[in-house]
Design brief:
mainly beta; 1 helix; 8 strands; 148 residues; four-stranded mixed sheet
């Protein structure tokens, strides 16, 4: 058995060390690489991806947002949250309920209809959207409707 094991190792060791012959350079100019419309880079995206509600998602559910801040002199709210990749995870709609003391915002996400029979990768994407308020935020409290 030991002799068979040694013989097998020698065969592998000698077979791995063979070099391939080097081809001579030709005078033909190599073809240009194809142009890729959406190249993948090793750099992370700068800031969250801005998205708009699609209104046609399936399997819709409430999701929590991470941040909410007033913009445009308090007349709009910019919401930021973590989500999945499109079209597997899309923003369906945003519900805003305003009272004199608080503004309740609820984000709804689902799957785009075209991704119904698609395999989806599980990767987190930071997303943001902006919603208009009927009245400037002022001193009202922002409430996440997905937490209630």
């Amino acid at each position: 058995m030991t002799a068979t094991l040694v013989a097998g190792c020698l065969a592998l060791a000698t077979g791995c060390g063979t070099a391939q012959p080097v081809q001579q350079a030709s005078s033909v100019t190599p073809a240009k690489p194809p142009v890729v419309s959406n190249p993948v880079t090793s750099e992370p995206p700068k800031g969250p991806k801005h998205v708009k509600a699609t209104g046609n998602a399936i399997n819709v559910r409430k999701i929590r947002f991470e941040k909410a801040k007033a913009v445009s002199k308090g007349k709009k709210l910019q919401l930021t949250w973590w989500s999945g990749v499109e079209p597997c995870t899309v923003l369906d709609r945003v519900k805003v309920k305003e009272t004199g003391k608080k503004v309740t915002v609820t984000l709804y996400e689902g799957t785009a209809p075209k991704a119904k029979n698609m395999s989806c990768i599980m990767i987190a994407v930071e997303k943001t959207t902006t919603v208009k308020l009927k009245k400037a935020l002022g001193k009202r409290k922002i409430v996440d409707g997905a937490k209630t």
